[in-house]
Amino acid sequence: MKAMILAAGKGTRVRPLTNVLPKPMIPLIRKPIMEAIIDHLHRHAFDEIYINTSYLSHAIEDYFRDGDRFGVSIAYSYEGKLVNGEFLDQPLGSAGGMRRIQDHCGFFDQTFAVLCGDALIDVDLTEVLRFHRASGALATIVTKPVPREEVSKYGVVVTDDSGRVLRFQEKPKVAEAASNTINTGIYLFEPQVFDHIPAGVEYDIGSQLFPRLIAAGEKVCAISLPFEWVDIGCVNDFWNATRLILEGRVQGLKVPGREIRPGVFAGLGVTIAPDAVIRGPVYLGSGTRIGSGVHIDGPAMIGANCVLQAGVRIRGGILGDYTRVTEGALLDERIVFAGKFIEPSGQAVDLVDTDMRWVLGDARTPPAEHPAHADLRTAMCEAALAAD
Question: What is the pLDDT of residues 64-106, one digit of tens each?
Fold first, then answer.
């Protein structure tokens, strides 16, 4: 079976995480989001996969390569061009990216799936395929009900009793939404859909292709199934998804490493001082050192080769690889990633710009010296966020 993963977007709403990584490569307990998607496709016999890339394309292509180690075959469609030795990204939109692949090699010669590369899913794709074929639809959308107050973030789908789509509303106001059933960005198509997608232009599936199909009288259906769907649309989604995985609430995803204490998982080479207190769920990345008197209260994810010096207290949070936390500091539900000190809301300060290197730094460099006490260190972190 064939599938396409949409991975060309910039992920602007997930900054600063996407300053250094394309959104599909954001790690959830060591595993990029898109790796989990590929694993799920493979479980449902979708083993030929095309990925469209643009922003920071090399990060995706260098990691997944030809897909062999994931049990699938992968090819890529880069949307952009090389100008004076630099890549100029030119994303074509979700439907435009599909058309580019089809024009290039005719890849979509049978029923195929299209999924967004930035959401954790465990939907039964085998059942979706059965429904799609039985309905005789040109396109099938996987939908999901959400709390009504959330509908303005999504495309709303209106169907009749048989599941045939009657109309769409793209991110309507709550008061104007015709339903609370939304488009999850998971689709099945027949190859004839390309008769409705213009070539060589930016074109979107949700806001352009589907309304065009409905206007043309084509059969578009929707199926709503119970499944876990964790959309990583903002920093807070990343925070919540990490917590769900740590708490064992995402089917098909388990915390890696070895369980060294109840609810505490660790990679290789982790050292923990005898008097350190760690209450799960917590993941400790390989090579991490936990100093004397450290307290960690989960859910928390500590990356690889981190150093938590004596007396550090972590109450929830995510630390990226090679993070050093200075002696006595307190981090309360914060994210440290790519040189940024980040609140779950997405508010962030640069560690260098705010001279916080003596509180939080790179474990591969000598620690910066400062005469302040631990309470001042903590206060400085909090004040920097408040002032940003």
Answer: 999 999 999 999 999 888 888 888 889 999 999 999 999 999 9
What is the structure's pLDDT at 369?
A: 56
- DSSP H/E element including 362: strand 360-362
Strand partners, 87: 82
For residue 350, give its domain range: 257-387
The 10s digit of each residue's pLDDT in 270-297 is: 999 999 999 989 999 999 999 999 999 9
Tell me whether residue 204 is in a domain: yes
Residue 386, Cβ neighbours under 10 Å: how many? 9
Closest to 235 (Cα-Cα) out of 331, 335, 155? 335
CA dihedral 172→174→179→181, nearest 10 degrees, is 80
Contact between 309 and 327 (Cβ < 8 Å): yes
Whether 180 shows a pLDDT value over 80: the answer reads yes
Q: Do 288 and 197 share a structural domain?
A: no
Clarify whether residues 15 and 143 are in a common domain: yes
- Amino acid 87 reads F
CATH number of the domain enclosing 14: 3.90.550.10
CB 48 within 8 A of CB 68: no
CA neighbours within 13 Å on the CB side: how many for 149?
A: 0
pLDDT of residue 236: 85
Residue 248 sits at φ, ψ, to 5 deg, of 70, 30
**Token pair listed for 22:** 């394309």
Average pLDDT in the 20-41 region?
Answer: 91
123's CB contacts (< 8 A; 6+ apart) are: 142, 184, 186, 225, 227, 229
Nearest Cα residue to 334 out of 345, 326, 323, 322: 345
CB atoms within 10 A of CB 93: 24
- Give every CB contact of residue 7 below 8 A, 6+ residues apart in sequence: 22, 23, 24, 34, 51, 52, 53, 60, 117, 118
